[in-house]
Amino acid sequence: MLRKELAGHFGLTVVWLLVITVFNLDWRLNLIWFWLGGLAGTFLLDLERLLYREPLLLKPQRSPFRNIIFQLILLVVCFYVITSNASFLGKGLVMAMSLSLLKDEIDHPQAFFWPIKADLSLYQQKLVIVAMILVFLILSLLLV
Q1: Residue ranges of the chain whose pLDDT lies below 50
Q2: What is each CA distance from 29 to 20, 24, 45, 125, in whole angstroms?
Q3: Which end of the chain is more exposed for a tag (fewer CB within 10 A), N or C?
Q4: What whole-number distance in Å separates Cα of residue 115 and Cα of residue 10?
């Protein structure tokens, strides 16, 4: 199960990195750092899943990183890193983390809204997911 999720995250990130690369042919050496950051960011959030597995088995609970509040904070951090930082490693890292969260949110939407006390209908959850996708696309356009 974990391998399938990792492969899905990796494939989606590679496609996103390729699209950004095609539209930015003038990065040259910075492109390597962007790809390294993107690949690292893909698996960074998945590392916390290992802490909740059998060998370490920290108290099984809901992930503090896989919820809508963390995703909103991460999108703000993405905007900050993209607009005020020259590090292509950092840009790739935070954007890949955000993309990984988006994929998980699309696959399991009900698991992301647990911190919100109000009951959101499926339609409202879909609206939030579409809004998050649009914000991610706008942030990706800032990279181009």
Answers
A1: none
A2: 15, 12, 26, 40
A3: N
A4: 27
Q: For residue 92, which amino acid is it?
A: G
Would you call 24 helix, strand, or coil by DSSP? coil
Q: What is the DSSP letter of 64?
A: S
How do residues 40-64 score in pLDDT, each as one tens digit?
998 888 787 776 666 655 666 677 7
Residue 24 carries which side chain, given as an amino acid letter? N
CA angle 7, 8, 13 (to 5 degrees): 100
**Of the candidates 110, 84, 80, 107, the residue with the CA atom closest to the CA atom of residue 95:** 80
Query: What is the rounded distance in angstroms from the CA atom of residue 119 to the CA atom of residue 112?
Result: 12
